[in-house]
Amino acid sequence: MKVLTNASRLVTQVVTGEVWPPLADRNAFRVDANGQAFFLPGMGGVTLGVHCGDIATNLIGDHVEPGLSVRSAKESVNYALQFLTCIGNIVTVTSGPATGKRGFAIGQHAYVLVDMLESDMREVTTGDKVSIEAVGQGLKLLDHESIHVKNLSPSLLDGLAGGTNVDGTLDIHVARLIPPEAIGAGSGMVSDYANTDLMGTYPELDSSFSLGLEDLRIGDVIAMIDQDHSFGRGYREGWISIGVISTGSASLFGHGPGPSTIMSGPASAFNLILDEKSNIQFLTKLLKA
C-alpha cells in the first residue's frame, strides 16, 4: 500500500508460545440456532487443510481455527503474545520435526492463529514451540490521523492494495462489506484481543438466518460498516472498521467467521474499493523468501 507510516520507528520483539491441544469438557455438547445439540471440532491444535483463500463458512465445525493455534501457559506471557502479535508477523517453529519451518500470523482468537504451507504444517503437532517476530503495534498512517491502526504488521500493510488519494482519503480494497446486523460475539471487547464473530453465515440452516456472507474466505480483507474498533468494539454510525477473516465456521448462535481488526476510523476517511481478490493469501510468499 502506498502510504506514509512510522514503520521505521517500530520495535520488533520475539514472543513465544506453543501449539495448544484441542480442549473439551465433560458436557461435550453445545446447542445451535435450531436448538440441536452438536459436538464438533474447532478451537485449538493443528487444523489441517484450511488456509488463507479457502471458504470459511462451509466447514463442519465450531469456531474453526485454521492452521496452528498458539498460546502460552503463563497468563501474562499469553497476553503479551496476543497483544503484540500482528497479522503478517513471521512465525518460526522452534521444536519438534518441523523445527525451522515458518508460517505467518493471520489473526487472534482464543489463540494466535498461524497459517503455513500444508506440507510443513503436517510436521507440526501440539506441544511444539514457536517464536514470533512481533512488530506492528504502534503503527500509524502519517497522512491519516483519524484512522486507528492495530494488529497490522508493516509487511501486511505493504502488500495491501490501495494508498493515499489526492483528496486525503485512504483507498483500501475489501472483499466484502459487512452490515452492522452481522456483528455478533466479540462486540464490547478490546479490539486488540481475539476477534469479532459474524452472524448470518449458517449454511446448514434455512435462509432466514442468512445475511448473504456464505462466500467469505479465510484471509479476506473486509469492511465492517458502522463499527468503531478504535479502543474497543461497538456500533457507531458513520464509522468503518477493516478486518481480516481469521476463523471459520461456528455452529453456536450469534457466532461465525471472525475478523481480526486492523484499522478503524470515520467512513469519510476511507475510499472502499470492492475487490473479491482482496485476501492476505499473498503473505505466503514471505515463507519462500
UniProtKB/TrEMBL annotation:
Gene3D superfamilies cross-referenced by the UniProt entry: 2.40.10.170, tm1086 (SG structure) domain, tm1086 domain
Any single Pfam family the record assigns to this protein: DUF4438
DUF4438 domain segment(s): 29-158, 165-281
Protein name per UniProt: Unannotated protein
